[in-house]
Design goal:
The chain is α+β, with helices and mostly antiparallel strands. It contains 21 helices and 31 strands. Strands 1, 7, 8, 9, 10, 12, 13, 14, 15 and 18 form a 10-stranded antiparallel sheet that branches. A 5-stranded antiparallel sheet has the order 19-26-27-28-31. The two termini are 38 Å apart. The N terminus is likely disordered.
């Protein structure tokens, strides 16, 4: 079977929608014995794009896709290296209008290394007879390994073994080690090691009709016999990128001499190394690369920094040892164990990609959480709302990283304030898509690959992004009780976001309620009403309820700040008592639409839309996850139908507990029966295409209490989203970071029931017995905790140290846990 072993679902069920199940699991390349390995045992060209994304190595500063070192961008391979926060802007003319797009830049490729025997062709796997093939991603050590045994066109048999890392301790260093064994031949071996600055951003097919050349060559040098230097610069943001490469040849562990010839050209620097091999002879080529940019701190300039760092770097093996130790420390902080083998393998893969997209190296840099990681070019590397799903994992493990990523938003408050003022609002209006400076980066038009037409893009109307920012600030504070951050940064963000919602809400005299018009919810299928497709919708329930939540949190922030600090913040903001009194009124009187039977309406007027003939579209198209593209190709629109990409009403149940939501709706004056939740879930479940990978995460969550088996189906779908590429080709463009983090969060906050609110750590497990025993480590307000869930008992052990006791609540039972103590708590059988 191509790509792996058939491990089965582990729980024996298939999702109702989405096309996953045993068939998808059969293609998952996981090791049935070692749960720390992702293994491919053959070369399948049509799967290479997905494999390159899943085998990406990174350290929070840079990441490199798992492309073969000898490859170049073509229909099979796409080498890509991305630096966090390295953006550039390019302009194009579409439909006689100028459009500008900012993209995360595919920086020079540091990997290139190929070879040839005698005067033969340079190595390309497609030209060889492959005798054995194995590619392995070692999750525990952050190492990518490739072993190939092949025979060339003249019958020579060679064994190739490669290891690579992107250093988790020294953020600027990468390494590639190549060992070649001439099994049955002798003669000259020529090795080419290069730095390639001619690369472009062509990793997403639908973007290829637009400008894609982001780099300008500056310098190509060979400062010493072992060393190459390449310096490029982004064309408009003028970020200088310097790469210095050291290539050494070793035999029997000792450095040996080799003939060297350098080729230096615009955007290209290479060395050809020539040596002789005997039959059975073995040679190792170590390539270590240092990468710096003009955005880095504590450097004179990038080229000097790269050469200096490279000159001081030890050999490949010592670097690899330090890198492995750094990963071991990281996994100790992020320990998780599940009795179900298939589940823990994918969970570790997901955690791996989260930890190498944002790491402790992110702390010193002005970076956010890119929706597709540093793994590809989808969404042009922009920052959306994905941190909403990533931060719950970091808050309870590596809160320092969350703090630094929240600073990304804080630094862009001035731009968010300017954006709000330009629309006639107060406060801060964060953009749906953000990049370098915090302006709105959402496209004005996008290409529908089904119809081939460029169509308007209204996604900038997703004002709810500010709600996510405020929610993230509050949740970080609940997990850490970081008073300093809240006082100096968090409070200002929450207050300015509250000001925005206080100003966008308009009083409706007929209803005696406040309304919010012309927005989009997380469900991107509905950009407006039939006949007014891009004007947004009115009173999106998710937006309105969360706006009330933010206004209440803003009032909480004002109440908890010391008077002196409160005056220091509110003075420059011009925040007067009348405005805060209005917040209180809006928080009690914002309008929430309901169906006649008590189900929360997705937005005002949703109930009046037409029902879609689901059977017809499924019979005609099969996969209708991207129903919006299908309908546009038919000159129709999802705005006409009760059909969602992801049901955003259900996001309320994802972010707020049933108690919190009930209290909030009662505060708004609505008679809300929590018994309506199951009917609401069923209603929207029947009308959702799951066109977003986040849909499975949210549905697993909301089904967990009443329909655990169905929740497991969607949990499995969330596990498979990228590793089996269930959306049909999107993983090659970059992993879905929020879905990966969300699958871990389903275990942590949903099945294990871990919540942080009200100075209490809440434990309300509804743990599926099919997943076996769960054990994981977290850090709550500075105290290290280990949670062990088995049967119907959760055991919580606190680490030693001089920390205040913590308050635990498990299904109504409150316990005080002190450092060094442990407690066992029974929980309900779900």
């Amino acid at each position: 079977m191509p790509g792996g072993v058939n491990v089965g679902t582990g729980v024996g069920r298939k999702p109702t929608r989405g096309g996953t199940g045993d068939a998808a699991w059969a293609a998952v390349p996981l090791d049935g014995v070692n749960t720390w390995r992702l293994v491919y045992d053959d070369f399948v060209p049509e799967e290479e794009g997905r494999r390159e994304a899943l085998c990406t190595l990174g350290n929070g500063y840079l990441a490199t896709r798992g492309a073969a070192p000898e490859s170049t961008a073509d229909d099979v391979h796409y080498p890509g290296t991305y630096l966090a926060g390295c953006y550039n802007r390019l302009r194009d003319t579409l439909n006689e209008e100028t459009v500008e797009n900012e993209s995360l830049v595919n920086v020079p490729n540091w990997l290139p290394l190929s070879f040839r025997a005698g005067d033969g062709a340079w190595f390309r796997l497609a030209d060889m007879t492959v005798l054995d093939y194995k590619q392995e991603l070692d999750l525990g050590s952050g190492i990518l390994i490739r072993v190939v045994r092949f025979r060339d066109s003249v019958g020579r048999t060679t064994r190739l073994a490669q290891r690579r890392f992107v250093h988790m301790e020294s953020e600027h260093l990468c390494g590639l080690q190549t060992t070649l064994v001439a099994e049955d031949w002798s003669g000259r071996l020529e090795v080419r090691s290069a730095l390639d600055g001619t690369v472009e951003n062509t990793g997403v097919e639908r973007y290829r009709k637009l400008s894609c050349r982001h780099l300008r060559p500056l310098r190509a040098e060979s400062p010493s016999p072992e060393t190459l230097l390449l310096v490029t610069e982004t064309t408009r943001s003028h970020i200088r990128i310097a790469q210095a490469a050291r290539t050494r040849v070793l035999a029997r562990g000792e450095i040996v001499a080799a003939g060297r010839t350098a080729t230096l050209d615009l955007g290209w620097a290479s060395q050809d190394l020539v040596l002789d091999l005997e039959p059975g002879g073995t040679v190792t080529v170590d390539k270590v690369v240092a990468v710096f940019t003009s955005r880095d701190r504590a450097i004179f300039e990038p080229a000097q920094a790269a050469l200096s760092t490279l000159g001081r770097a030890p050999g490949f093996d010592e670097l690899l040892e330090r890198h492995t130790r750094a990963w071991a420390r990281l996994w100790k902080r992020s320990q998780i164990q599940i009795g179900n083998v298939e589940t823990i393998q994918v969970i570790r893969l997901h955690l791996f990609h989260v930890l190498q997209t944002v790491s402790e190296h992110s702390v010193e840099h002005d970076v956010g959480v890119p929706a597709r990681g540093l793994h590809g070019e989808a969404y042009r590397g922009h920052i959306l709302w994905d941190e909403l799903f990533v931060f719950p994992i970091l808050n309870l493990r590596l809160p320092l990283i969350t703090r630094s990523l929240l600073h990304y938003r804080y630094r862009r408050l001035p731009e968010a304030r300017w954006a709000a003022s330009q629309e006639g609002y107060a406060g801060a209006m964060f953009p749906w898509q953000s990049g370098s400076d915090g302006r709105e980066e959402s496209q004005l038009v996008h290409l529908n690959p089904v119809s081939g037409r460029w169509v308007p893009d209204a996604s900038r109307r997703q004002r709810h992004i500010g709600l996510a920012v405020a929610y993230n600030v509050w949740q970080y504070y609940q997990a850490t009780h970081d008073d300093e951050f809240m006082s100096h940064y968090g409070a200002e963000m929450i207050l300015d976001i509250a000001r925005f919602w206080g100003s966008i809400a308009v009083y409706d005299h007929g209803r005696d309620r406040y309304v919010i018009r012309g927005v989009m919810g997380p469900d991107e299928f509905h950009t407006g009403y039939p006949g007014a497709p891009d004007d947004g919708v009115d009173n999106n329930a998710y937006t309105n309820v969360m706006a009330a939540w933010v206004l209440l949190r803003a009032l909480d922030v004002l109440a908890m700040l010391p008077k002196e600090r409160r005056d220091e913040i509110t003075g420059p903001l011009g925040l007067e008592p009348g405005e805060t009194r209005r917040w209180g009124e809006i928080s009690r009187k914002i309008f929430v639409p309901f169906h006649a039977d008590g189900i929360i309406s997705q937005f005002e007027g949703y109930e009046d839309l037409a029902e879609l003939d689901w059977q017809d579209y499924q019979e005609r198209f099969g996969d209708i996850q991207r129903l919006d593209r299908i309908l546009e190709a038919e000159h129709d629109s999802p705005n006409r139908y009760k059909a969602s990409k992801q049901a955003d009403v259900l996001m309320l149940f994802y972010l707020l507990s049933a108690d919190e939501l009930s209290e909030l709706l009662e505060h708004l004056g609505y008679s809300w029966n929590p018994g309506t939740i199951p009917r609401t879930i069923e209603y929207y479940l029947d009308r959702t295409t799951h066109g977003s990978t986040l849909s499975a995460v949210v549905h697993a969550w909301v089904l967990a209490r009443a329909h655990r088996h169905r929740a497991l189906d969607y949990f499995i779908e969330s596990l498979l989203s990228d590793v089996a590429d269930i959306q049909g080709g999107t993983t090659a463009e970059g992993i879905h970071l929020a879905a990966m983090a969300g699958s871990v969060d389903v275990l942590q906050r949903c099945f294990a029931g871990v919540e942080v609110r009200g100075d209490t750590l809440w434990l309300n497990p509804y743990w599926p017995a099919e997943l076996g025993v769960l054990e994981f480590s977290i850090r709550y307000r500075g105290t290290a905790l280990t949670l062990h869930i088995a049967g119907r008992t959760v055991r919580v052990s606190a680490g030693d140290g001089e920390r205040p006791p913590i308050r635990l609540s498990c299904h109504g039972r409150v316990t005080i846990l002190r450092p060094g103590e442990a407690v066992e708590l029974p929980f309900l059988d779900g």
